[in-house]
Specification:
The chain is built from 9 helices and 11 strands. It is of the alpha/beta class. It has 2 domains: about 55 residues, no CATH class; about 220 residues, 2-enoyl-CoA Hydratase, Chain A, domain 1 (Alpha-Beta Complex), CATH 3.90.226.10. Strands 5-6-7-8-9-10-11 form a 7-stranded mixed β-sheet, with helices on both faces. Helix 4 runs parallel beside helix 5. The termini are far apart. About 0% of the residues have low confidence.
């Protein structure tokens, strides 16, 4: 029976001509939804229907926030040295080089200035892909210099945090960045220059204990993990069970540590509106 027999062999693709689907064309959310990366990008990296905010870095945030993705980067070539002289194993310098090669970044933060809906602004954005977005000397120095640029130009400053905390390989030098950046924020406050802090998933450790929670406006993306220490450490310290989801952005908002939570798709317009309101005030 011809019904069960393929007669037109001209429509078959030879095995050697078949191609694999390129990697990176599709994204699968934690809920199992599969989205084409082009659709994901057009939706500000938020999975449609699920509202899941994909974890992104400075490249994507700059695309979302700066008009036409046009900006001038500050201190683009600054990179970490070996302040504690790990000369025996070369572990830290090696990890820096490996992270630079893997991520095509110099360190865990990028800073730039440009326009956001026509408003001039300076933005510092952390990259978790670079050693967990850890805060070392370069991170602190770049943020401090970006704040200096805002002071010089008298333009608003936006800090986008995503970090595991201080970089332990730089020990006390890393912790000093908390004081350095906090001092610069005080100067922004004295100069009446708006400072907005955006906390994304995750924002923890010394970053939370310094510049991430010192904004004139502290805002966060939905369902972001925000905290200082891990749940186990807190539980053992206070000797009590912890509320469910106590380190979520929603819990932190309910307890007064955030001003509002903003969907990434509305981020640019909402921040622009906020800055215009502050400017008019």
């Amino acid at each position: 029976m011809p019904w069960f027999k393929r007669t037109d062999k001209g429509i078959l693709t030879p095995t050697e001509a078949k191609r694999e689907v390129p990697d990176g064309l599709w994204f699968k959310s934690p809920g199992g939804k599969i989205v084409h990366t082009r659709e994901l990008k057009n939706n500000a990296y938020v999975v449609p229907e699920e509202e899941y905010h994909v974890k992104i870095g400075s490249q994507e945030y700059f695309e979302i926030l700066f008009d036409n993705n046009e900006f001038t980067e500050l201190d683009a070539n600054m990179e970490s040295a070996d302040p504690l002289k790990f000369t025996d194993t070369k572990a830290y310098p090696k990890r820096i080089k490996e992270s630079q090669a893997k991520t095509n970044l110099k360190d865990a933060v990028r800073t730039a200035y440009g326009k956001m809906n026509g408003l001039e602004i300076t933005i510092a954005c952390m990259d978790f892909s670079f050693i967990g977005g850890s805060m070392g000397s370069v991170v602190g120095e770049k943020i401090a210099r970006a704040m200096d640029h805002s002071l010089k130009t008298r333009k608003p400053f936006l800090m986008i945090s995503r970090s595991g905390g201080a970089r332990m390989m730089e020990a006390g030098l890393s912790l000093m960045q908390m004081a350095k950046t906090s001092a610069k924020i005080a100067l922004l406050d004295q100069a009446k220059i708006p400072y907005i802090s955006l906390l994304t998933d995750p924002t923890t450790g010394g970053v939370t204990a310094s510049y991430a929670m010192l904004g004139d406006f502290n805002v966060a993306e939905p369902n972001s993990l925000i905290g200082f220490a891990g749940p186990r450490v807190i539980r053992e310290t206070i000797g009590k069970d912890l509320p469910k989801g106590f380190q979520s952005a929603e819990f932190v908002l309910d307890h007064g540590f955030l001003d509002f939570i903003v969907d990434r798709r509305n981020l640019k317009n909402k921040l622009s509106l906020l800055l215009r309101m502050v400017g008019e005030a």
